[in-house]
Amino acid sequence: MSEPAAAPLRDRARRIAPGLLLSLVIALAATFVSEHYGAPVMLIALLIGIAFHFLHEEGPSAPGVDFAASTLLRLGVGLLGIRITFDQIAQQGIGPLLLVLICVPATIACGLLLARAAGKDWGFGMVAGGAVAICGASAALAIAAVLPTRPGHEKDTLFTVIAVTGLSTLAMILYPVLFAGLGFDDHEIGIMLGATIHDVAQVVGAGYAVSDEAGDIATFVKLLRVALLPVVILVLILTMRNRQDGARATLPWFVVLFAVLAVVGNLGVIPAPVAEGLSELSRWLLVVAISALGVKTSLKQMFALGYGHFAVVVGATVFLVLLALGLSTVL
After folding, report:
1. What is the DSSP string of 268-290?
2. Tens digit of pLDDT for each residue in 232-290?
């Protein structure tokens, strides 16, 4: 690589280094606490990260923290595909797929109805319902990108991102306790976590805080939801086909990576030591990403959310949990 071409890479590396190092140190500390005291490493990483939120607001750490919480997270989730076996998928049966296919459109519809009842714009209901139904902040941003621009459009989108991120953080802590209290085993907990928590990061964190089995299943079910994002976006684009700036719906790259590794891993092409190395790399990437997510979480912003908008997001979240619990008894 020539010197001029390498310069931008060096500049980017310098920008993300402080925040990336911070996230790594928190991940190492969380791992130490987990190994010595038996606490869930994902939860410890999240809580330690929250204590250092001020470093995301001030100083040079923000770019690296954002990089760890987005790119490293997606890479870690993608690499989890190496842990998925065809036997696992076959054992899930059609139940989780039906659960997702029912819950996603029903929750989006709930968001639209709640927004209407609260006197809010339908666009906000679509963004909020889609974020709760599919994959949190990522879905909110993707859906907002294809909706018509209107007064308050950006404010509503930012509000939804903050709300679903905060609720996902709480869900990561509370849902495993809730579902265990209802008598679900690790397998069932994994399905419920994957079907109800908004963001991929918190699904992974909550699942692997319970057990490896719950984490694997939760990730699989969650990615079924994520895979519906381009479908929802495509429907929106076709609905508003007169727009000239409609975005193209594409499958997120980390979902493709997850699927490719799941297939290749089951074909026996990847040697066992390499597969184990990729699995361990995935675990570390996810702990670092969860640490960064904690650093990004502002408790002040979470508690300062408006009641009207917040009611829509909370209502859709409660609806999704209750619907998933109801369906779990028949699917």
Report:
1. T-S-HHHHHHHHHHHHHHHHHHH
2. 888 887 787 655 444 455 567 887 888 888 888 888 888 889 989 998 998 899 889 88
- For residue range 90-126, what is the model confidence (pLDDT) as tens digits? 667 788 989 999 999 999 999 999 999 988 888 899 9
Q: Which pTM does this prediction carry? A: 0.75
Listed residue (238, 241, 186, 242) closest to 209, CA to CA:
186
Residue 170's closest CA among 140, 218, 143, 136? 136
Cα dihedral sign, 184-186-188-192: positive
Of 252, 205, 229, 294, the residue nearest 74 (C-alpha):
252
Its sign, for the CA torsion 181, 225, 92, 219, is negative
Domain ranges (residues) in the chain: 81-285+298-328
Sign of the alpha-carbon dihedral angle for 145, 147, 152, 155? negative
Q: With contact defined as beta carbons under 8 Å apart, do 227 and 255 qualify?
A: yes
Collapsed DSSP state (helix, strand, coil) of residue 119: coil
> Given the structure tokens 């690589």, which residue do they identify?
1
